[in-house]
Amino acid sequence: MKIIGTMRPLDGTRGAVRVEDVYETDIDDLWEACTNPERLARWIAKVSGDLRVGGLFYAVFTSTWTGPGRIDECEKPHHLLLTTEPGTSDEAQIEAWLTEEGSRTRLVVEERGLPLERLYFHGAGWQAHLEDLGRSLGGEAAAGLEPWTEQSPEPGWRARWTELTPTYEQMVID
């Protein structure tokens, strides 16, 4: 597993983080890991709500990000587009694309609308999330080994994020 992360400006104040990896699983299994609430809780977030296009959901991420979101597009098993904190000044979009590569599947995740000066925190965070996804696909419970809440991140995620942050901080935003 080799996660590739990049960051880019969208304008003078907002930017985007993009991470991708290829997983040793078929597209349907990866799609389930990215859309099924029980499987999401194994690696990234506790999710509840109206989980269909146009529906509103509420999530508590292992990173402590907590808030509402909306499902804007859902094209099983290839494409998902979410808006977090819709209608607020913190609104952002998370988009995921899944592509078959033989018996493996490539996942590309991009989050747009993030504060430019904090992109490196998000880049490190998304890499840690995708690494947790890989472990969860291998049968490990990557998240939830220790409880996490809105105020306290999942300890394993936090440790990896702390380790990755300096690398992302040094990256050129292009």
Structural class of the helices, strands and pairings? alpha+beta
- Please state the CA-atom Rg, rounded to the nearest Å: 15 Å
Q: Give helix and strand order, one letter per element, not per position.
A: EEHHEEEEEEHH
| Total number of beta strands | 8
Biggest beta-sheet profile: 8 strands, antiparallel
The shape, in one word, is globular
Unreliable segments of 5+ consecutive residues = none
Separation of termini?
24 Å
Which CATH first-tier class would you pick? Alpha Beta
Number of domains: 1
Helix content: 25-40%
CATH topology: Alpha-D-Glucose-1,6-Bisphosphate, Chain A, domain 4
Mean pLDDT: 93
CATH superfamily: START domain
Widest sheet: strand ordering: 1-2-8-7-6-5-4-3
CATH architecture: 2-Layer Sandwich
Question: What percent strand?
Answer: 35-45%
SS field, number of helical segments: 4
Structure commentary:
- It contains 4 helices and 8 strands; from the N terminus they run E-E-H-H-E-E-E-E-E-E-H-H.
- It has one domain (4-170): START domain (Alpha-D-Glucose-1,6-Bisphosphate, Chain A, domain 4, 2-Layer Sandwich).
- It starts with a strand and ends with a helix.
- Helix content is 28%, strand content 37%.
- Helix 3 (119-137) packs across helix 4 (155-170).
- The protein has helices spanning 27-35, 37-40, 119-137, 155-170, and strands at 4-9, 14-23, 45-49, 56-61, 66-75, 79-84, 92-101, 104-115.
- The protein has an 8-stranded antiparallel sheet.
- The protein has 174 residues and is α+β, with helices and mostly antiparallel strands.
- The longest helix is centred in the C-terminal third of the chain and has 19 residues, at 119-137.
